[in-house]
Write a structure and sequence with these properties.
By secondary structure, this protein is an alpha+beta fold. The chain is built from 6 helices and 4 strands, in the order ααααααββββ. The strands form 2 sheets. The protein has a two-stranded antiparallel ribbon with strand order 1-2. A two-stranded antiparallel sheet has the order 3-4. The longest helix is centred in the N-terminal third of the chain and has 20 residues.
Length: about 140
């Protein structure tokens, strides 16, 4: 087999398939956590659960039913709600948390992002244009 030939064959095989999405990646990461926990607890059913999660992720990656997998992934991301950014990009979410503080507007309760460590700031709400002060 020529160098790079297996990559072409893999790309040809994956043509028209789903590929890894957020739900598949989350399933594999959860399986890894379960395996690590199982190293200490020694429960055989945890290993089976981890194996089933990896099998489900492989099913999602190889699926050609793109519409159904996209709908399932969107439901999963909607279910996550505020934790969505932590699942999609944990490093960006962590840097966001360290650099900014999220406060609520005093009148309309809209979330507003302000930089941390700047002392007392006068903030204008982007939704209702109310001005209020906050400590960052």
């Amino acid at each position: 087999m020529a160098k790079g030939d297996w990559q072409r064959k893999l790309a040809d095989w994956l043509q028209g398939r789903q590929g890894p999405d957020d739900l598949a990646v989350f399933s594999v990461n959860l399986a890894i956590v379960i395996v690590l926990v199982n190293l200490f607890l020694h429960m055989s059913w945890l290993g089976i659960v981890a194996l089933l999660l990896v099998a489900y992720a492989m099913f999602r990656i190889q699926s050609k039913n793109l519409g159904a997998r996209a709908r399932e992934n969107e439901k999963f991301l909607k279910l996550l709600g505020p934790a969505r950014s932590w699942v999609q990009n944990p490093s960006a979410a962590w840097s966001e948390l360290r650099a900014y503080k999220h406060v609520r507007c005093t009148s309309c309760k809209q979330k507003v992002r302000v930089p941390r460590g700047k002392g007392k700031l006068r903030v204008t709400c982007p939704k209702c244009r109310t001005k209020f002060e906050v400590r960052s």
